[in-house]
């Protein structure tokens, strides 16, 4: 028994019309690490206050090809001194074809950054580990939830949906 592939013009046309999403490349766009107070930090109790900032941006670079850059900045302070500051811009080239505008926006705003996040986590963990500081494992992020929040905030700001009534507690 042999497998048969339908190569009719209709089947080929349907395949070409089907939505397509694929990662073409993943790469570090920019990376920076600073530990300005070493080795003095090794002589104090290390209980850092860690802050993380994250954002993503995207741009079309060719027909059906988009670059998405996930930027994460992680800083740690101990006793008002900077233990370290790490910035990573992890990027990816994504092929997106035959999706409507809303679906494409969602892929660029949630799915692509979610694909890049494990690479950011690994880069940050590796950089921190090379300094002699204890490893920091970044928590998973719900990119779809963040994306939906951002869309809701934009709609509220534009007046497209009514903002929830605020309550005052006395």
Largest β-sheet summary: 4 strands, antiparallel
Helix content: 25-40%
Q: What would CATH call the class?
A: Alpha Beta
Number of helices: 3
For the largest beta sheet, what order do the strands appear in spatially? 1-4-3-2
Q: Can you give a write-up of this model?
A:
The chain is of the alpha+beta class. It has one domain (21-158): Bacterial Protein-export protein SecB. Helices cover 32% and strands 35% of the residues. The protein has helices spanning 9-17, 101-129, 143-158; strands at 20-34, 49-62, 65-78, 81-97. The chain has a 4-stranded antiparallel β-sheet. A hairpin with a 2-residue loop joins strand 3 and strand 4. Helix 2 (101-129) crosses helix 3. The longest helix is centred in the C-terminal third of the chain and has 29 residues, at 101-129. It is elongated, with a radius of gyration of 22 Å. The termini are far apart.
Topology (SSEs and partners):
Blueprint: H1 9-17, E1 20-34, E2 49-62, E3 65-78, E4 81-97, H2 101-129, H3 143-158
Antiparallel strand pairs: 1-4, 2-3, 3-4
Put the structure in a nutshell.
The chain is α+β, with helices and mostly antiparallel strands and about 170 residues long. It contains three helices and four strands.
Brief descriptors of the model:
alpha+beta, 170 residues, 3 helices, disordered C terminus, single chain, Bacterial Protein-export protein SecB, four-stranded antiparallel beta sheet
């Amino acid at each position: 028994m042999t497998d048969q592939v339908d190569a009719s013009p209709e089947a080929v046309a349907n395949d070409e019309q089907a939505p397509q999403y694929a990662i073409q490349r993943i790469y570090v766009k920019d990376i920076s690490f600073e530990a300005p107070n070493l080795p003095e930090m090794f002589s104090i109790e290390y209980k850092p206050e860690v802050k993380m900032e994250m954002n993503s941006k995207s741009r079309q670079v060719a027909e059906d090809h988009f670059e998405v850059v996930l930027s994460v900045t992680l800083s740690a302070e101990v006793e008002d001194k900077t233990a370290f500051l790490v910035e990573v811009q992890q990027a990816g080239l994504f092929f997106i074809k035959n999706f409507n505008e809303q679906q494409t926006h969602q892929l660029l705003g949630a799915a692509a950054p979610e694909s890049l996040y494990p690479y950011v986590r690994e880069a940050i963990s590796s950089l921190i580990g090379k300094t002699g500081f204890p490893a920091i494992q970044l928590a998973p992020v719900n990119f779809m939830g963040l994306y939906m929040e951002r869309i809701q905030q934009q709609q509220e700001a534009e007046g497209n949906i009514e903002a929830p009534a605020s309550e005052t507690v006395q």
